Amino acid sequence: MSLNPPLRETLLAELGDDTNLTARSSSGIMSPAELTLQRIQMQSSTGAQSKDAAKRLAVARRGASTIALAPKGKPRLLLMGQRRSGKSSISSVVFHKLPPNETLFLESTARIQKDSMASFMDFQVWDFPGQIDVFDNANFDMDAIFGEIGALIWVIDAQDDYLEAVSRLNATVLFLQRGYPNINIEVFIHKVDGLSDDYKLDIQRDITIRIQDELSDHGFENAPVTFHLTSIYNHSIFEAFSKVIQKLIPRLGTLESMLTNLCRTCRFEKAYLFDVLSKIYIATDNATADMASYEICSDYIDVIIDITEVYGTWQRSDESRKKLEGEPWNTKLDEQIGCPTAESCLVLHDSNKPIMLREVDRYLALVAIMRDDSYDRMPLVNMNVEAVVEGLTEFFNITKPRK
């Protein structure tokens, strides 16, 4: 007795995996060798599909696993945007002091790059590859990415077609406004160094209108989106990052008031509080800022750092410290130093305006542009600067996050 073909196929589908059953064919009994070969083929195809799925899942989770291990408590700056928009170049120039002309040899970012910055305010910079869309991948933990973020920096290449970049930025802003409305969104309209001033403003106006119209259509007219024209070949990128960092400093108005009072008392033209490593100024007085004064002070910091690397302090061995602290001095080395902090003053020949630098701590420096007659009042200037430095030190001790 033989089964009709439809019923036979149904039973084979249900019972084919049972080793105690023998499959029947229309012509008779299937041999054990044929049955074994059929099962090997089925297992091979199933195993290949499982390996492909596991491989895709591993690639998707590669970035998510690193995000889950991110340390808590440090504010983050997220660099996002299209591929080849200049995100890695910005991070390398600002935070790693890479010369701008050497960024041409940087490879395209293939995975999330995370840099921890030891500064007056410990923070992280995350560089997201342009080909990764965190919103299309369910393996990314949005709270781990955006939960402790300080600012989202979206980089747009002004010399390329930016319509797709604007579209992705709009989708990102809408997502953040629904779930994380307090995140500052900074748009860097980048690579504008080769464009005319009128063309720069036209591009900025066009991008601003496209983004604001999209946000208004969805009811987010007051989204915290700010636009900056930037380039790594001038100081505009440092100026933009300064504005970004200032929004993350608690009680920034207190710092600005201290610098404003110092300028009024000592007759300074301009005063900046710089982060020495990145040359980002975290505060300035309320006088109108101009790029020229910032560039002079920033370049002056470079000179001081270069000199410090040659003639500055260095780590001494225990044996060396014992010799210096022994006979005939019998005094600790720290007490033998007349002034543990750095001070300097320079007079520019073209403008005849002294520039003064005063170290606040290992990360911060106060740089001020003085007036022509400032040398006549240097004792008063030094006294006021010392008082401000003490106030700045106390300010950061109070506002520093407790571990």
From TrEMBL:
Catalyzed reaction equations: GTP + H2O = GDP + phosphate + H(+)
GO CC aspect terms: endomembrane system; fungal-type vacuole membrane; Gtr1-Gtr2 GTPase complex; nucleus
Cross-referenced Pfam families: Gtr1_RagA
The entry's keywords: GTP-binding, Hydrolase, Membrane, Nucleotide-binding
Sample GO molecular function, one term: GTPase activity
Main location: membrane
The keyword Magnesium is assigned to this record: no
Keyword Hydrolase: yes
Protein family (similarity comment): Belongs to the GTR/RAG GTP-binding protein family.
Self-association state and partner proteins as the record states: Component of the GSE complex.
Function: GTPase involved in activation of the TORC1 signaling pathway, which promotes growth and represses autophagy in nutrient-rich conditions.
PANTHER family: GH16429P, RAS-RELATED GTP BINDING RAG/GTR YEAST
Protein's name in the database: GTP-binding protein
Species of origin: Metarhizium brunneum
Lineage: Eukaryota, Fungi, Dikarya, Ascomycota, Pezizomycotina
Gene expressing this chain: gtr2
